[in-house]
Amino acid sequence: MTSRVVETPYGPARAELHCASESRAALLLGHGAGGGIAAPDLVAATRAAVDVGVHVALVEQPYRVAGRRAPAPAKQLDAAWLAVADELGATWFDDLPLLFGGRSSGARVACRTSSEGQAVAVLCLAFPVHPPGKPEKSRIGELDGVEVATLVVQGENDPFGRPQAAHHRDVVLLPGDHNLKADVAAVGRTVSEWLDRVLRPLEV
């Protein structure tokens, strides 16, 4: 595991790199709004990806690196994320297909930036469809706007809602709520199977 600081328009971000024995692709994973890269589902997804030959960069947004818990505005999160993707894509992950992903707020960032960042697929862990108890404040448009293969891993009892499967989008419901801690082994299995499936056509 290697850690690298990446300069962004909103201060330094940090990327924690986990290398796979193969080099099929690279997956950038972002954290939730108030959490960090040590969240159990992110750890499970990282291990699963590495096991199927995908390098992983766990990305800490600048506000977290600076020690703040309150998240930055969406525009800043997206700009910082794209800066990290550009830097890693030109250095560590040169010539590899890039996948974007994350949990909760990080999943929203991955969706919003997937087109501009030229991601070949998007992984969403616990996508927050709406704030708890406020279905009228839906963010489903961010998910619907993704034009590449997408996997959403969601807790069956997630108070942030449950998205529906759609064209290019698989939704897998697992026991538990928004933190996806109830069955992290299932998170890993789901991620590894999906990664293997979406990457295979790119390797022909």
From TrEMBL:
Sequence ranges assigned to domain KANL3/Tex30 alpha/beta hydrolase-like in this UniProt record: 24-197
Highest taxon, organism lineage: Bacteria
Pfam families: Abhydrolase_11
Record-given protein name: KANL3/Tex30 alpha/beta hydrolase-like domain-containing protein
